[in-house]
Design goal:
10 helices, 4 domains, alpha+beta, four-stranded antiparallel β-sheet, Arc Repressor Mutant, subunit A
Length: about 210
């Protein structure tokens, strides 16, 4: 049976310690695990004990990496998983994600709601573009559907009208049909559906050009 012969705090990282077994370097772990497992110089270390220490070490590494990622920007569960998969086993990732969800570090529903609010109020996007943005963030479908369903129809129409009027101001001196097409294409690019675009164009152009849209 092996014996812990030295526990040494790392000089460059005070949160990590080096464990020596039988006078030789054995592994580096987070300092908190020394207290969790009550490790002391002179302790015998068995295989099962070692396996649990290593398991907890990998969990802490995964958790800290995930928290570091989240400190820079909110992420969906899927995106966090993708960022961990190259360094950690599936069971470790699952444990990390369970921790993050338990303490609300990740929440796809809340993230989707925040993105929708920003996209509607600041970017003035339509539902189609917002939905695509949510998919690109890796947010689960149920959270996307719920967030999209909360978008106010009148607010979406007003956003489309605002964008259309701005674009129309730039093209109003062009050939009317070309101007019409440019405004329509701009609204489609911004993610508005056919019915909203049609209604907005009717309001701005008050003509029959929209028969071709």
């Amino acid at each position: 049976m092996s014996v812990i012969t030295k526990i040494e705090v790392q000089k460059k990282n005070q949160d990590r310690v080096n464990i020596y077994v039988d006078e030789e370097f054995f592994m580096a772990i987070y300092k908190e695990l020394v207290f969790t497992f009550n490790l002391k110089k002179g302790d015998n270390i068995e295989e099962d004990h070692l396996r649990q220490i290593l398991k907890d070490e990998m969990f802490l590494k995964g958790k800290n990496k995930a928290l570091n990622i989240l400190s820079k920007a909110n992420q969906s569960e899927k995106k966090i998983r993708e960022k961990l998969v190259s360094d950690f086993e599936e069971d470790v990732i699952d444990e990390v994600l369970d921790f993050l969800k338990k303490y609300n570090f990740i929440n796809d529903n809340e993230l989707a709601s925040k993105i929708v609010t920003t996209n509607v109020n600041l970017n003035k996007y339509g539902k189609n573009k917002i939905k695509q943005n949510l998919y690109n963030k890796g947010i689960e479908k149920s959270a996307i559907d719920e967030a999209i369903s909360e978008i106010d129809v009148d607010a979406e129409f007003e956003n489309a009208l605002y964008l259309a009027e701005k674009r129309y101001a730039r093209v109003k001196n062009e050939d009317p049909k070309k101007a019409y097409a440019k405004v329509a294409n701009h609204l489609a690019y911004k993610g508005f559906n056919y019915d909203i675009i049609k209604s907005v164009l009717n309001k701005i152009f008050k003509s029959d050009y929209n028969d071709d849209y």
